[in-house]
# Entry
Amino acid sequence: MKTVDRYVVGIFVQNLLLAVVAMSVLFLFQSMFSDLYDHNFTFDQIRYFHFLDIPLIVVQMTPPAVLLATVLTLSGLSRTHELVACYAIGIGLKRIFGWILVVVLIVAALIFLMEDRVLPPVFRARTTYYWREMQKHPDFFLDVKRDKIWYRAKNMIYNLERFDSKSKTIHGMSVYTFDENFNLIQVVGAEKAEFTPQGWKLLNGTVTVFNQNHAFPLTQNFTKKEIQISETPKDFQEIEKEVDGLRLKELHQYIQRMKAAGADTKSYEVKFHSRISMSFIPIVMCFLAVPFSLSSRREGGFAKDLGLCLGVTFFYWLFYSVGLSLGTNGALPPWLAAWLPSTVFVALAATLIARKT
# Structure
């Protein structure tokens, strides 16, 4: 790497770090003020809750920050005529952009690692803190694994094989009931549980009662049983959110298990592919920045660069969100829904770059 290459990379890295920090801080404070205004949580609770949001915010703000940093770097070199000087000594745009792209590829790899390694445990910690400390449910516990779902509330622990939020039905449900000393007093197991206006109706199962006056537990079979528990389908819908706490490998295994059970997995598959495609978005933004950085006439300085980047980012995320919605609704295959926006914008960037060169 020559002096000019280090100079360009240094400017880009500086612009990128400033953009990531500035966008993340603005987004963080906006979220905090919104919660302070809408909810009755203490400032310390809101501050810690949003502190756990920082890794996710950094990941979300990195793509537009890459776009802004690339535009600022190339357009800045163009305005100060340093780009012309580079051309004069035989250093072309391909070489300058190549080093920028190398940095962006490293950033994309780091985002992928954060998506798979950092965000899942942080998400679980954030969810647990919200329910236990902010919503005052100290017994809250929800753990989604590839072969089981554990949900704890008050004096009960639920083990679910599968929860279908659309039909409000649980397949393979076990309910463990404990006394105030956390001694097991009853286990109810059922093949299926349906939610009705009167409560949960269990089908084809057994009730096992543990009584201190009997040496052995008493078990009774049933074909239909009404059970009164305080949890509703809305409570169990937290399971769908909890898949964000799974690593990619665990999420893939969870999807395969749900498919084998005959469940609709489109929303989970969209999540899986979107988490992978997210790490490639900085590369797309980097390519998009090139044609907008090399216009023959540059006016407006930083304000114009910022406005341009915000506009491009808005349309990209709008297209990206629409694509994910179409995948979730089944209008597009999940993999296509996650990758189509990036493919279209890369093709657009390639076309614009070809016209500039």
The chain is about 60% helix and 15% strand. The longest strand covers residues 184-196. The radius of gyration is 26 Å. The first helix runs from residue 3 to 38.
